[in-house]
Specification:
- The chain has 5 helices and no strands.
- It is mainly α and 106 residues long.
């Protein structure tokens, strides 16, 4: 079956623009490259664990920032969980360090 200009209608269902020849749909693997990086979550969880015992204000803030990067770059769910635990670790690590510092001179 042909349209008014004599070309076949088979091109209408393809992923190529009939006017310019460019792709109209992204390749399936192209969008998933965003999900492959796992470095941000691993470093974020490591900084969270470090913030529980060593300089919680610094490492907790870094873990929160990495959670924010994970939220925007990789996964919104994983990033929000990491930011929540980083904030909890920052507060809990600070409380523990204040208690340890307070009992050091007894």
């Amino acid at each position: 079956m042909n349209h008014s200009q004599g070309g076949p209608f088979e091109m209408a269902a393809s992923n190529v623009c009939q006017n310019c020849g460019s792709l109209t749909i992204q390749h399936e693997g192209h969008g998933s490259l965003k999900k492959l990086g796992i470095v941000y979550p691993i470093v974020g969880w490591a900084f969270f664990l470090i913030s529980l015992v060593f300089i919680p204000l610094l490492f907790g803030a870094i873990a929160f920032c990495i959670g924010l990067l994970t939220y925007f770059e990789r996964s919104k769910f994983h990033g929000s969980i990491l930011m929540f635990f980083a904030a909890v670790g920052l507060i809990f690590g600070s409380l523990v360090s204040f208690m340890v510092a307070g009992t050091m001179f007894l």
